[in-house]
Amino acid sequence: MMKIYVERNDLMKALGHSHSVVEKKTTIPALSHVLLQTEGTKLKITATDLELTIIEVIDADVEMEGSATVLESMFYEIVRKLPDGAKITLQMKENGNQLLLNSGASRFTLSCLPTKEFPSVQITELPYHFKIPAKDLLRLLNRTEFAMSTEETRYYLNGIYIHPYQNQELRAVATDGHRLARVSVPLPEGAEDFPGIIISRKTVNEILKILPDQNSDVDIRLSETQITFTFENVFLSSRLIDGVFPDYEKAIPNGNNKVVRLQVNPFLKAVERVAIISSEHSRGLKIEAQSGKLILSSVSSEIGSAVEEIEAHYGAESIEIGFNSKYLMDIAKQMENDEAEFSFADTNTAVIIQNLADARSLYVLMPMRV
Known about the structure:
eight-stranded antiparallel β-sheet, DNA Polymerase III, Chain A, domain 2, DNA_clamp_sf, alpha+beta, 3'-5' exonuclease activity, cytoplasm, DNA-directed DNA polymerase
């Protein structure tokens, strides 16, 4: 029967990672549980919702080997409320259906499910394999995740599309039909031939939450239906979205010849101020490009109006175009403190936005009637 000793902070970190994976409302009781297993001098913690699985290994003083399946929400709350640095003892009772948790003066007895009821996690060999620096993977996901769709009917847009491009780049693309984000990093060795894949929104959010922002590598293995990420003491496996991502190149206009250059930070601050007046429903904001400046404005029949001018490099004929202010801010936040180039065609054509300090990123924003 399992008996181990663990550090509260180590256990809390691992449970924090698994907490968003575990299903809070499910018809399968085992999916609301985590599986605890001893493994040498380690404790292995597994959580799954059948689409996404996370396995994390932490240090433990193992007195007796064994396993337990415990309700994650209760286990998480107990560990979270124990003091930092606390020592925890976990011990299965002889009846095999209760876990004792002792820490200082605290004593808890937690009901357990039979471990055989926990879903079997199959770790199979996948045909494609490469390693990518953690900072590159973070860049791909961080710079595109805001453009993922939340519209369930177009499920194939509810994630980030990743594929190799011309044997030179690894590209990440996300779009919700209103805006598009395309970001690239140098192509890792071994990533030349894998098919384009769509990583689900839940998986993207989990990776961004737990991936260390440091000079380490992430081991990626994938097939057309599954992807795994291994880094430090974490293993994450996810089912890929089964769908066809649209030809995103068709959403990038070719004839945008009216070009505005501006400093992003003052532009973002001006948009934030002017957008205060915009309607909560439409968030409409108008941009008028004139020689040497942009004029930002918004009008609300209930609230009033706002106008602000900022400096910009622009020499073509005046153009006036409306945007959703939130979408505009989302893109601008990807390139704060840099200089950006906005390429317009007319009031009905999408604008292309590029960071002049980063040739590997490109954003497209559809206009709206204001």
